[in-house]
Amino acid sequence: MFINRKKEKEFLEKKLSSKKAELIIIYGRRRVGKTFLLEHVVKDGLFFTANLSGSTMLMNRFLNEIKELINLPETLKISSWEEFFSFLNMAIDAGKTTSVVIDEFQYIPYKDDTFLSIFQRWWDKEFSKKGVKFIFCGSYSGMIEKIALSQNSPIYGRRTGQYKISPMDFEDSAKFYNFKTKQDYILAYSVTGGIPLYLLEFSGYTSFFDALKEKILTPGEFLVEEGKFLTLEEFKKDPSNYFSILTAIANGKTTPNEIANESGMEHKNIGTYLSRLLELELVKKEQPFSLKRPRKKAFYYINDEYLRFYFRYIYPYQEMIYRGLGNKLLEKIKFTISQHASFTFEKISKQYFKKHTGVEKAGRWWDAGNKIDIVGIKDNILYVGECKWTNKKVDEKVLNNLRKKIPFLLKDLEYEPAKIVYYLFSKSGFKNLKESDDVKCIDLNKIIPQ
Known about the structure:
47% of the residues lie in helices and 15% in strands. The chain is of the alpha/beta class. It folds into three domains: 6-165, P-loop containing nucleotide triphosphate hydrolases (Rossmann fold, 3-Layer(aba) Sandwich), CATH 3.40.50; 171-341, Orthogonal Bundle (Arc Repressor Mutant, subunit A), CATH 1.10.10.10; 347-447, Trna Endonuclease, Chain: A, domain 1 (3-Layer(aba) Sandwich). It has a five-stranded parallel β-sheet, sandwiched between helices. The protein has a five-stranded mixed β-sheet with strand order 8-9-10-11-12. The chain has a two-stranded antiparallel ribbon with strand order 6-7.
């Protein structure tokens, strides 16, 4: 199933059809669909997939893909990346390929810091003059930005393009679902996020809780262990502390002090762990919406829906799943899933808000006594949003409470808009509220059109 990815596909097709050499960096979270996209777009290319094997083993495995193309002896072994690129260059000169994809390429410089410098020399001397297209594809954005996109990288200034593949937004993700109720769409997205592989797992169900029981709370299903797989490889040296921190954040601890207290970490060390999680983009840091450099303390949260669900409900209770107590765990989840999904509903509302207002930047704002879920500015119009994931209909009281917060917001922003537009998002609809030019009422029927 190939849904959306139109912009990404057009970007790659344009690069692949150019007459000059291209060095492209494709990156994004694991399972986001990078490899599927490349296989869909890149035709007749050489595909190599890296892992944490030693350099010698890896380069010889790559060489095996070339041997038959240029009639190399099957027993041939190499011991340097110089040799590998020499044989790869022979294959290119022989017209055997015009595109080279190295997937999970971040593992190579991680194990061998000479790789990119050697590639740089071959790029300058040979590849850049031959019209060949190189695509380096990697997971974990922070790591890729550091080793391939920063000014200190050997290939800085040589890349001809880069594209971060993000999870699908809710509008496109919803096309995978077939649930009977609109609420189930939100609940499902709070577990799968916009990750195509997870969306496919839930795509054949009409009930969210049936999908949850069969695809996550059943022994042997890959989503039971997926969270551990995604994170353990990055934290082999100290996994227990990272897992404790992620569990604390998933359970609503958002400040360094709260996270340290909940996880049992020493306060003096928590910053180092959070920095690493930020680098890998497993955790994000949020500060109040501002028109200048924010001064208030940041909140930390797990931006990935599946990992947030995993560290709240699966990792702490995995033993229950393997003991066949999935039904009991399901009842436990039902008790608090609404609280978990409220964060997701706010994220979905923000996506809708940005699309319909046209603001480029939108975020939460708060001070000591007030909080506004969504704030954005465009063309001197202030847009503010309130999100209510409750069983109670939104009424005039909610709107008036939002209006009362505006003076505090404007004082903090040091800003005077020409107009203010209010967006109210509600799980359960509205009571005695009518839309106008400056009041927009958004229920699930608008967020999830038929």
